[in-house]
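Quarterly update, task 2.4: biotin-bound model.
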Amino acid sequence: MLTWRLMEYGEVASTQDLAESLARKGGKEGTVVFAEAQTSGRGRAGRQWLSPRGGLYCSLIVRPNRIEGVQMITLLGALSVADGIMTLPGIKTQIRWPNDIVIGGKKVAGVLASASARGGSPEFVVVGIGINCNFRAMELGEISSASTTLMDLLHKPVELASLRFQVLETFADHYEAWQRGELEVMMRRIKSLLSTAGKKIEYKPVKGEVLQGLAEKLADDGTLVVRREGRWLKLRAEETEWLREL
Ligand code: BTN
């Protein structure tokens, strides 16, 4: 059973850096590093994650029993955040493949998974979660028009401790099911929340230029099936720098 061991900080550079360094030194599965603010928060593909006070920033260490399907942990994290946020009254979240949690098309949270393997076995995965909670989206500068915060939506601050409890408990349930190889319920739920399926998309492969296509569906291995110029291809999260729904 996944038992959480919480480590709480004020302002740090990045909870992801802290948790990765702990994991490399043998930090136990279930260790969670929380911070009130980050000065060098990291997003996917080397992007910055702006982390003013009032947000929920944490990175948790897991040590999966197998390497196959480890890429599912990002989606599993996104589902846990989406479901955790939906425990707040009147809020409906969606998942924009592969790691964005959106409300009304605007990003409210993101998930970043950093994996380390040795000799074909997974050593650890650090799952970083950032949720825009108790501040205004306008504090996010140039990304403010594509972002939203829970306070902007609810017109009052949210209780961070209870939101993080919901997210961690949901993550633990899905992670344990995944470890047992039980993916069906989780996949059904992710598919039902996926905003990307059926949309025209624009995306940038890590190596390559911006392309367009039609996102057909999420495959059971977590890749996105895209139709492009009459052909089908599977996008992998780690090979996709960014994706936009058109
Ligand atoms: C993304 O959408 O690009 C992923 C954002 C992940 C941000 C979180 S905040 C807590 C943890 N620490 C970091 O530096 N990044 C992750």
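Highlight for this quarter: Residues 14-16, 38, 41-44, 47, 49, 57-59, 99-100, 110-112, 128-130 surround biotin (CB under 6 Å).
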